[in-house]
Amino acid sequence: MDLSELFGEGWCVTLAHLAPAQALERMGVRDVTDVADGLQLATERLEAEGTPSDVLLLGRELRDGWSLIVELEGTQGWAGMDRAVLEALSASGRVAASAFEDPNQLMVHVAADGQVVCELDAVTGRLPYAAADTEQTVGDLLSLGFSRGDEPTGQMAAADAAGRVVLALRAVTGVELQEEDFEGSWLGGLSAAGR
């Protein structure tokens, strides 16, 4: 699964252990509704003239109680990468993770129990030194071969940046993203831009 190949250079994907409507509401969506072809609607919004004041967020249920949230409008920031959003999505002992790609950046942020515990750079395969080794999620990333300052090792050394994102998301959530997870209808709604 290559999210960059699927969406191009601008996207954000969030995994949360909540029902899709709850996750969307915690991400600032005011009115959650069914969206028959959400990815097509998102594409049309990107192709429209001007910058909209709201951002379209799309969500759907995955396996084992996880939800997938997709954003394709990052001109004013990614809602899924906002610290307060990740903290809300991971509150009460949950884990949440978001990944985004903008030109020259491919990052994954992980939150556990209401706190962002790490931000990793998928291009370099490195975790910042500030990440706490005591967090299970950080330990899972280090065991995959993400590095503190050296070159990545193990699976991370063999994977390209897009592959590192999928491996990191799976390591901290247990969710193996598949192309069919992005097909069909969605729940969705608009969230205030500028997070």
Give a nutshell description of this structure.
The protein has 195 residues and is an alpha+beta fold.
What does this protein structure show overall?
The chain is of the alpha+beta class and 195 residues long. The protein is 29% helix and 27% strand. The chain contains seven helices and eight strands. It has an eight-stranded antiparallel β-sheet with strand order 2-8-3-4-1-5-6-7, sandwiched between helices. Helix 5 packs antiparallel against helix 7. The radius of gyration is 16 Å and the shape is globular. The model has no long low-confidence stretch (mean pLDDT 86).
Secondary structure tally, helices: 7
Low-confidence stretches: none
Number of strands: 8
Order of strands across the biggest sheet?
A: 2-8-3-4-1-5-6-7
Strand content: 25-35%
How would you sum up the global shape? globular
Distance between the termini: 28 Å
Largest sheet: 8 strands, antiparallel
Mean pLDDT: 86
- Gyration radius, rounded: 16 Å
Helix content: 25-40%
Quickly give the structural class. alpha+beta
Task: List SSEs in N-to-C order.
Answer: HEHEHEEHEEEHHHE
Give the helix/strand layout:
Layout: H1 3-7, E1 11-16, H2 20-26, E2 33-35, H3 38-47, E3 54-61, E4 67-71, H4 83-89, E5 95-102, E6 105-112, E7 115-121, H5 136-144, H6 154-158, H7 161-173, E8 186-192
Antiparallel strand pairs: 1-4, 1-5, 2-8, 3-4, 3-8, 5-6, 6-7
Q: Keyphrases for this structure?
A:
195 residues
